[in-house]
Amino acid sequence: MKIHPKHILAKSLILSFCYLAFNCTQKSGNESDDNSEATDDKSAYYTDEDFGKISKINTHVHFKVYDTTFIAQAKRDHFKLITVNVNSGYSPPIGEQQGLAVKLLKAYPNDLAYATTISVKDFNEPGWAQKTISYLDDSFEKGAIAVKIWKNVGMELKDAKGKFVMIDDPKFDPVLDFIEKSNATFIGHIGEPKNAWLPVDKMTVAGDKNYFSEHPEYHMYLHPEYPTHEYIMAARDHMLEKHPKLKFVGAHLGSLEWDTDTLAKRLDLYPNMAVDMAERITHFEFQAVTNPKKVRDFFVKYQDRLVYATDETVNEKTPIDVYSKQAHENWLEHWKFFTSSEKMKVADVEKEFNGLRLPKTVVDKIYRTNAENWFSLEKFK
């Protein structure tokens, strides 16, 4: 039977229409391949507007003077704070710091918590451990929820023989046991960023370049006679092995800030370890320049072990109203990095990077519930 050319044309038109209709349907169904934000559930993500509405905890700030301006800014931004005492040469005596923390705690019982610290001044004297435990017992009675150890252990403190003292030294064991039995958290600023062992021009972020240029005493590249980064980290790991039930928060990403894979290995090995992000978020941003997916996947996988912190220090050097404004802008920048997928540029990182656009469930843990759990912050719940 001969088919009329008009019938062939009609059939071709029908087939073409069906093909186009099918492809349009397929494109609509797979649109997320080209633009995931167009079809994903936006209710699962926060926006910039949510920053001032969501309850958050900043687990690492320092008050060196009594002031309410910074706390007022934190309250406006829906932040509760943990002020951390520290046994450093830049800080007031630890008893004075504790007195200030207790005064702030009484004034703002629902907005503030505090971490005490310990002195290693008399570490080589008999009775140091018992004296330290007595001080901590008094601190806990006054409301301390955690204990901070500083980088002078491992990088400055020496024993009677002139050898550098590491955090796994047996003299620390009874003190750490007491912290554990008191259900307090041990915050460890152990070591420094790996950048400290590099020349300034090889460092990855501007903040480290500035800090170690201004503080050559901690620029380990200039002090090859000091312990290596690997040695200090190994001592910290040994301490965790000896005290597997001690709640430990590694300050400043546990000094493993340069590589999410290296940090992940420690978190896998030590389930009693979390890390705070104080002054190290730029290292995540630096890694996001080249591999944002890897950084995002790390946050999702270890969402229960990452605690928001910034390390602002309230002192007399900068007018508090100016400093509070700077802190607000810093907090907003962090929020954008965690919650959006936008291109970003910050002062500390040379190149642009994308935000991580983490789900609400992960953001809530980073900003609030992890802090509640790792620091037993029942009063903030």
Describe the protein.
It comes from Dyadobacter arcticus. GO terms for molecular function: hydrolase activity. This is TIM-barrel fold metal-dependent hydrolase. Pfam families: Amidohydro_2. This protein is an alpha/beta fold and 381 residues long. It has a single domain, classed as Metal-dependent hydrolases (TIM Barrel), CATH 3.20.20.140. It has 15 helices and eleven strands. The strands form two sheets. It has a nine-stranded parallel sheet with strand order 8-7-6-5-4-3-2-1-9. Strands 10-11 form a two-stranded antiparallel ribbon. β10 and β11 form a beta hairpin. The protein is globular, with a radius of gyration of 26 Å. The N terminus is likely disordered.
